[in-house]
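Example 3.2
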Amino acid sequence: MTPFDEPFLFDASPLLHAAKADRLEVLGDLVRDHDCLTTQSLLDEVRRNDLAVHIAVVRAAWIRTVPTDSLEFLHA
């Protein structure tokens, strides 16, 4: 298994910037061959910064929200 076989875990910055530039789907295209994750707490942070971006990220089919921030869970 290579490091690129692992899921990609997205932080707020790339999601916020891509969505504000109306390029969230372009970012999704770049990572389409990978399992892409974010956390609920990250979505909470995005919602506090920009509700429209939050809606776009939640609707993006290429990224999945994991319901926990447990490092043990994310590492598995």
